[in-house]
Specification:
With about 475 residues, the chain is of the alpha/beta class. The chain has helices spanning about 40-60, 65-80, 80-95, 95-120, 155-170, 180-195, 210-220, 235-245, 270-280, 300-315, 335-350, 395-405, 420-430, and strands at about 10, 15, 20-25, 35-40, 125, 135-140, 145-150, 170-175, 200-205, 225-230, 250-255, 260, 290-295, 350-355, 370, 390-395, 410, 410-415, 435, 450-455, 455, 470-479. Helix 1 packs parallel to helix 7. The structure holds adenosine-5'-diphosphate.
């Protein structure tokens, strides 16, 4: 692999080392070290915040047209460099190459979308109840944004946040996930190359050992006005409480627990591909993955046998760089061991193994299908984050709606039904931020992405995505 990797931190337009030395990034497919990356300390973060604050004084006054023009350039550059970027994603995350290329295209779509939305940041005039006043609102950027991104969509989550932040007029300090900093740095280099001014984007990678220190520096800085995070609920809760001290605006995209319900009128010709896409995309490591399958007793056996057959014929486990592979390794040992333990416990609790369930070498895990699962079993109570489908049987709509809502998380939910009244009833009753009706691939730049309950606050993408990075100012004129 001859591609040159970017491994340094980027602060105030300068590529440099981190005060913590370096940390290793590994290829999850082979366990081999890919690179040593700058390990930033809290002091590096403070300097990055300083650089972003200084750049903000200029960036906030650029016109929306200028910012939009730069966002279009970033889109074009992402698309022009798709293959190289996809290879970097696959090397450090294990994601199959086709999916990595898809992620780069998805990332570009947010730059196009927010280039367009930047120009529509309207205020309004408000009719006054007294003749001596005139009232208007305007939108302004909030200031420096801290963006903390995960490893499962390492460029798309950065892109979705960054495009909105830049469009609104914010400058950024980005902390990428320790498993996947290389794609964040490669993307940043590309932004530098198309002319993003120094200090507007700063990137401070750090090792897992330094994440608390770096996270605290971002939360505690009064100069950081908004923090946007995608990751686990536990870390989100910590950031939420820590940011209380500086009263930051917060956008949190946290863990999901998506129910996938198959009602008696479901068309299995749609439900089976929907289940396959939702469960096995990115080897099950997405926050909107179907987590709990509830299948009506009348369709249960047919659904299970057809899903098992689709798994046998459509899924190929292996190195993400190899042709035809669509199931890569899990990201790291911690996630792998967690999944192995949860499957073992669920089987010991009485679930039946229809496919998979046994270990493979390295960080690979076989596509697995378990039936006879009950809501009290381990896998039904946790976010699985791996290629394991668990099937529960149900009898009535009332029972299954109650079961699907019986979780603290509420990101996405899916169901298959052709009963129009039921479609409305269930879509409204689901306690989630996003519902897929006879469809599981919902994420797109035009639609609001975000959850309710412990799955987070705020929306990304869509016309609402800019709200996270801008504030509404009311101006009252006496006349
Ligand atoms: P996972 O457990 O799947 O790795 P995390 O929520 O731990 O998910 O990670 C998501 C992102 O949050 C990563 O960039 C990670 O480094 C970061 N992170 C983890 N802990 C903290 C923390 N205390 N402060 C700031 N960022 C953190």
């Amino acid at each position: 692999m001859s591609q040159k990797l970017v491994t340094e931190a980027y602060v105030g337009g300068v590529w440099r080392g981190g005060r913590g030395g370096t940390f290793a990034v590994y290829d999850p497919a082979t366990g081999a070290e890919i690179a040593q990356v700058a390990d930033c300390s809290s002091q590096d973060v403070e300097e990055a915040i300083e650089a972003a604050s200084e750049a903000y004084l200029i960036w906030r006054h650029t016109s929306v047209k200028e910012r939009a023009a730069l966002l279009y350039k970033i889109r074009d550059s992402l698309l022009a460099n798709k293959d190289n970027l996809a290879t970097t994603i696959t090397r450090e995350s294990g994601k199959p190459l086709g999916q990595s290329a898809g992620e780069v295209g998805f990332s570009a779509s947010f730059f196009e979308w927010f280039a367009e939305e930047a120009r529509r940041q309207y205020g309004e005039t408000i009719p006054s109840s007294v003749a001596s006043k005139r009232m208007v609102t305007i939108r302004q950027p909030v200031g420096v944004a801290a963006l903390i991104t995960p490893w499962n969509f390492p460029i798309a989550m950065m892109a979705r946040k960054l495009a909105a932040a830049l469009a609104a007029g914010c400058t950024c300090v980005i902390k990428p996930a320790e498993d996947t900093p290389l794609i964040a740095l490669a993307f940043t280099k590309l932004c530098e190359d198309v002319g993003v001014p120094a200090g507007v984007i700063n990137v401070v990678p750090c090792s897992r050992e330094r994440v608390l220190e770096v996270g605290a520096a971002l939360c505690d800085s009064p100069q950081v006005q908004v923090l946007s995070f995608t990751g686990s609920t536990a870390v989100g809760q910590w950031l939420y409480s820590r940011c209380g001290l500086t009263v930051k605006k917060l956008s949190l995209e946290l863990g999901g627990d998506a129910p996938f319900i198959v009602f008696p009128t479901a068309n299995l010709d749609l439900a089976i591909p929907g289940a396959m896409a939702s469960k096995f995309r990115n080897t099950g490591q997405t926050c909107v993955s179907a987590n709990r399958f509830f299948v009506h007793e009348s369709l249960h056996d047919e659904f299970v046998s057809r899903l098992a057959a689709a798994m046998d014929t459509e899924l190929k486990v292996g190195r993400g760089l190899d042709t035809g592979v669509n199931q890569g390794p899990l990201i790291n040992q911690r996630q792998h061991d967690r999944l192995v333990k949860m499957v073992k416990e669920t089987v010991a609790e009485g679930a039946q193994v229809v496919r998979g369930g046994t270990s493979m070498s390295g960080l690979y895990y076989p596509p697995t299908l378990l039936t006879g699962v009950t809501p009290a079993m381990t896998l039904a109570k946790n976010e699985i984050f791996g290629p394991v489908a668990i099937i529960m049987k149900f009898k009535t709509e009332e029972e299954v709606v109650k079961l699907s809502n019986h979780t603290r998380r509420g990101l996405a939910g899916y169901f298959y039904s052709n009963d129009v009244s039921q479609v409305w009833r269930v879509a409204e009753a689901m306690e989630v931020g996003m519902v897929g009706v006879n469809e599981t691939l919902m994420s797109t730049c035009e639609a609001p992405f975000g959850g309710v309950k412990y799955s987070g606050i705020g929306k990304e993408g869509s016309k609402y995505g800019l709200d996270e990075y801008s504030s509404l100012k009311y101006i009252c004129f006496g006349v």
